[in-house]
Amino acid sequence: MRDASTWLACVATAALLACGSSTPTSSTPPTTAAVAVGPNGSQTFVPANVTIAAGGSVTWTWASSGHNVVGDNGTPARSGALANAGTTYTATFLTAGVYHYYCEAHGAPNGVGMSGTVTVQ
Question: Using an 8 Å Cβ cutoff, are 115 and 48 in contact?
Answer without folding.
Answer: yes
